[in-house]
Design a protein that fits this description.
52 residues, mainly alpha, DUF2496_YbaM-rel, DUF2496 domain-containing protein
C-alpha cells in the first residue's frame, strides 16, 4: 500500500514521525509532548460529544 492511498491517520502519523526525526527531538520529549496532545484531543472529542 502506498502512502497516497493510506488512511488520513496513517499519513498524519508518518508526517509527525518525520517531523520529530528531522528536528532530532529526543524520544522522552516526543512522548511527553504527544501525551499532552493526546489528552487535548480526547478532551475536545469528549466536549464535542457532550454538546450534541
Amino acid at each position: 500500500m502506498s502512502l497516497d492511498s493510506a488512511p488520513d491517520h496513517i499519513k498524519l502519523a508518518v508526517d509527525l514521525i518525520a517531523l520529530l526525526e528531522e528536528n532530532e527531538i529526543p524520544n522522552e520529549t516526543a512522548i511527553a509532548a504527544l501525551k499532552i496532545v493526546l489528552q487535548d484531543c480526547e478532551q475536545k472529542a469528549a466536549s464535542s460529544i457532550s454538546k450534541t
